[in-house]
Amino acid sequence: MKTITTATGIDCRHFINGQYMDSINNKTFVNTNPANEEVLGTVAEGGEEEINLAVTAARRALNGRWKTMPLTERSKVLRKIGDLILERKDELARLESLDTGKPIWLSSTIDIPRAAYNFHFFADYMTTMGTEAYQHDDVAINYAVRKPVGVVGLINPWNLPMLLLTWKLAPCLAAGNTAVMKPAEWTPMTATVLAEICKEAGVPDGVVNVVHGFGPNSAGAALTEHPDVDAITFTGETSTGTAIMKAAANSLKKLSYELGGKNPNIIFADSDLDEVLETTIKSSFINQGEVCLCGSRIYVERPAYDEFVEKFVAKTKELVVGDPFKEGTNIGAMIGKEHYDRVLGYIDLAREEGGTIRTGGGRPEGFEKGYYIEPTIITDLDRNARCVREEIFGPVVTVIPFDLEDEVIAQVNDSHYGLSASIWTNDLRRAHRVANEVEAGIIWVNTWFLRDLRTPFGGLKQSGIGREGGMHSFEFYSELKNICIKL
Ligand SMILES: O=C(O)C(=O)/C=C/C=C/O
């Protein structure tokens, strides 16, 4: 594997049964850097044949060394993966920023360290797991044992590629499963390197497999339809989630989904505005707004509305959009042309819907190449405007005033999403009351994206199915068997 010494990328091949390999038909597709539209390398284009090879390897590996390996040894392997990720942090951060367009400081301080922590966390957590037992009078004793689900398909998004891949792969392996990973076509590089890191850490051949591909009838579709894949875990757009569910239905696969969101950020007038602004800049624009948890619907209690908007616009204007590898860049490039056009389309729609663009609103000056969009704040939109209701997944937020608590809760809950929400207030009772009423799976009060990996993580409604995190990951990545012994 060519390590990164220049601003170029690497060629990405499949990783099946412990070996890198090209596609059987030698087909490849080009991987492009969204920050300058230059070629980073080629990617093996996988399909049904490569998925079949990977699933066969994963099935065989289920009953090999991985099954007989003592729990403490498997825990050490996961810990070693985390260690090796940290050893290669700079290389992995560079690859992640080349693939995604996100600033290198973000890859280096969040994406890659969190990827390592995902493995370190589950390496520890897996050794603390218990199950349950019940004494049935003097008649019988019942006890439950956890067994792996089996072969798991991991279909990975492009916004936080390594953070999210490891968030799923770590518990998947901790529970004794084997994995076939399908990275997003725009971000193949860190997943490709992760495969060799797993092998170096002692993961037996066939336990971890990577198959690249894109578009319809590709590796992703083959993985979701494969009869010998027991479960699918997916993070991404709600519409793709629906398609996967249909494909997985015939073989009744177990599904874990973290899907889209249109997350409210509710700011009451009694909150500390400076503290609110510092976090709201992040929850609005970090990672180019390409985070499913971003607070893209901002509701401000009317007494604080004008001051908030004025200060929020001023701070947003200070943000630097540009080269992900340049010191001082706050916002990098969007993932690719298609998404760039889609987000710009929403900004145009906001104008048509009567919105006022307070700052941003398009492509920044001075960029010949690359998919850059200015951080954009929109006010004066009706609550039913599409830009208020639909996920934009870019550096674009709407700000809406409200007067009454019940009013803002009703507006916030009037959505088919229900992933996360932030609530800002110093009124303790109101914080609990509003948190209790908001329909979302993840609520932050006076903060955002503060993560404790033991907590249940996932969305309601069309934002997801199931929860991952701590015990909840094991609920998904294992099967509980109850054994009843007659005394
Ligand atoms: O922090 C996490 O565990 C996580 O899953 C973040 C998801 C962000 C999606 O865009």
UniProtKB/TrEMBL annotation:
Q: Where is the Aldehyde dehydrogenase domain?
A: 25-483
Gene3D superfamilies, A to Z: Aldehyde Dehydrogenase, Chain A, domain 1 (3.40.605.10), Aldehyde Dehydrogenase, Chain A, domain 2 (3.40.309.10)
Q: Does the keyword NAD apply?
A: yes
Q: Does the keyword Oxidoreductase apply?
A: yes
InterPro entries given for it? Ald_DH/histidinol_DH, Ald_DH_C, Ald_DH_CS_CYS, Ald_DH_N, Aldehyde_DH_dom
Q: Which UniProt keywords apply?
A: NAD, Oxidoreductase
Signal peptide boundaries: none
**Pfam families named in the record:** Aldedh
| Protein family per UniProt | Belongs to the aldehyde dehydrogenase family.
Record-given protein name:
Aldehyde dehydrogenase
What is the species of this protein?
Halalkalibacter alkalisediminis
Its lineage reads: Bacteria, Bacillati, Bacillota, Bacilli, Bacillales
